Each structure stands twice: as structure tokens, then as C-alpha cells.
Amino acid sequence: MSAVEEKLAELGLTLPEVVPPLASYQPAVQSGVYVYTAGQLPMVEGKLPVTGKVGAEVTAEEAKELARTCALNALAAVKSVTGDLDRIARVVKVVGFVASAADFTGQPGVVNGASELLGEVLGDKGVHARSAVGVAVLPLDAPVEVEIQVELVH
Fold first, then answer.
1. Is the Cα torsion angle 80, 116, 49, 24 positive or negative in sign?
2. Taking a C-beta distance cutoff of 8 angstroms, is the pair 98, 56 a contact?
3. How far apart are CA 9 and CA 4, in angstroms?
4. CA-to-CA separations, 32 to 13, 29, 50, 82, 111, in angstroms, rounded
5. 61, 62, 114, 138: least buried by Cβ within 10 Å?
6. CA 118, 150, 84, 48: dihedral to nearest 10 degrees?
7. What is the distance between the alpha carbons of residues 123 and 117, in angstroms, rounded to a whole number?
8. Distance (Å, rounded) from C-alpha 44 to C-alpha 28?
9. CA 126 centroid distance within chain
10. pLDDT tens, 50-94?
């Protein structure tokens, strides 16, 4: 077990199976020393635990937890390409999309769920640049979607 997966276990988390693509794309691709993930939905065992807009059907607190799940799914996608999460030199960028009710403006707080998970699991390697974007709708009516870019140890 890698050091990163040991840290996940300490946090009571396990790396899930890679979420199968919903369309014509790969969950993650490597280009040189970088791995880019596709947008990861908060799928748990093949299903979305909740759907709807944040600030309407979904609370900001629920959405923050869903963003954590997205980040965990993104790490699984990275491992599917690299074979070992200990190859991560650092997380470079996180982009979070939040399906938002018209008056919801707390997107950064929601995406903190993903950012905080990456920091807990990877320490200083998890510090990253980030965008948190409110959108009208996401695939399958998911409340949150997160993608990450990581640099690998060269």
C-alpha cells in the first residue's frame, strides 16, 4: 500500500474504483509529467447519493462533502494512470463546478471540500491553484463536479 493510501486509511477512507466514463473520454490522461482528470462526479458505488442544485435541494454542507467524494474519485482516476499515488509531486490545479440555485454564491466554500481533502491526504503536495465556478446544471443533475491536474515526480 502506498503512503498516500495509508494516509487515506488513517482518515477512514478507501480509494474507490474508478468511475466509468459517462461518454466518450478517459477518466484521466497523462501528458509528460502531468496527469489531468476528467470532471469527477460524487459517485459512490456507481450512483449519485444526492442530486439537485446547491442552495435549493442540496445544502452547502452536503455539497462540500460531495466535493470531498469528487476529489477522492479524482485520486482514483490518477492512480488508474500512474499505478501509484506516491508518484504525485504536487496537485497543480483544482477546478470545481457547483450546480447552483440562482441566488447561491458559496461556490468557494463548497469546493473547499475537495481542496481540504487533498491537503489532508497529500499535505504540502496538496496545495494548489483553484477555480470554483457556479453553473446552471451538471451531468446527471449532480450538485458538484471536480477535476484535478497533478504533477508527477520526474
1. negative
2. no
3. 9
4. 29, 10, 36, 12, 27
5. 61
6. 60
7. 10
8. 18
9. 12
10. 999 999 999 999 999 999 999 999 999 999 999 999 999 999 999
Check: CB of residue 99 under 8 Å from CB of residue 137: yes
Q: Which residues, including other chains, have CB under 8 Å from residue 128's CB and lie 6 or more apart?
A: 90, 91, 92, 93, 94, 115, 118, 148
Burial of 120 (0-12, 13-18, 19+ CB in 10 A): middle
C-alpha cell at 125: 503536495
Residues 118-145 pLDDT 10s: 999 999 999 999 999 999 999 999 999 9
Nearest Cα neighbor of 80 from 153, 27, 135 is 27
Q: Which three cell numbers stand for residue 78?
A: 490518477
